[in-house]
Design a protein that fits this description.
The chain is mainly α. It has helices spanning about 5-15, 20-25, 30-40, 45-55; strands spanning about 1-5, 65. Strands 1-2 form a two-stranded antiparallel sheet. The protein is globular, with a radius of gyration of 11 Å.
Length: about 70
């Protein structure tokens, strides 16, 4: 499975969350979110869980099957 950055960005937009608000809600660093969104850094399982919880979705929603 691969982290779906586009899904993350869409969920953030739909919920009106800026990157700063997401980092605060998820309890993760701003650099972490920046590196995931802008540079395609692969987040850890723990980070995926924190982001999903902040967005009120299941972690699997943020993952996509690899081609």
């Amino acid at each position: 499975m691969k982290f779906d950055v586009r899904k993350l960005v869409c969920l953030m937009a739909a919920q009106g969350l800026s990157a700063k608000k997401l980092t605060e809600a998820a309890g993760i660093g701003a650099n972490t979110v920046r590196e995931i969104v802008k540079y395609g850094r692969k987040p850890t399982i723990v980070t995926v869980g924190k982001i999903a919880a902040a967005l009120n979705v299941e972690p699997g929603v943020l993952l996509k099957k690899e081609d």
